[in-house]
Each structure stands twice: as structure tokens, then as C-alpha cells.
Amino acid sequence: MKYYLFNLEIETIGDPKTFNCSHKVGDGLTVEGENISLKPGTKQFSHYALSSLLPYVAAKQRAEQETDWMFFETDIACPDPKCGAKFRFKRGAKKEYEYH
Ligand SMILES: [Zn+2]
After folding, report:
1. Which burial class, exposed, middle or buried, applies to 98 when counting CB atoms under 10 A from its CB (0-12, 13-18, 19+)?
2. What residues does each domain of the chain span?
3. Which of 5, 36, 57, 74 is the one with CA 20 to 30 A from 12?
């Protein structure tokens, strides 16, 4: 059986002056299928931020209805309430997978 998932890129955005954590604008992650990697050029990524992003990954790989908020909302805030960083989900190619 075949199914489809979008590749994702998750990128740190915002004004660094408002960051309370060690985020760097432009740093981020890539997601392809079940695998998450550091985006090229990213040396480290906050595990607190990662834990707040993970619940959205599987849904963002799949949402395809333009009226579904999971389709059109792109930014997730850092879980530190004193931090102004956000993480932007960008969609890449739609890939076909085979379920065995
Ligand atoms: Zn933060």
C-alpha cells in the first residue's frame, strides 16, 4: 500500500534580542519520512524546543486541506515563556512511501 508524506524544514525565526535560549536564526531541522536531521549549518538544537515541535511533525507531514489550520499555520513558539523565538514549518516535496 502506498502513502504520501511531505518533507519538512523547521527553521528558527524571530528577533535574536528577544531570545532567552541559545537559538540562532536560520538554524533548524529537516524531516524526511521518519527521520529528523539537523539542517545543514546547524550545530545544535534545543531539546526543549524539539519537544514542543515533535507533536506537530506527523500532522504537518500529512495535512492537505487548505481549510485545515494544521495546513496553513506555520509557526510554533519556543516553550520558554520568556523567549521570543519561533520555529517555522516549511513544506518540501511530497514523497511516496510503501507500507509493508
Ligand atoms: Zn527559546
Report:
1. exposed
2. 2-98
3. 5
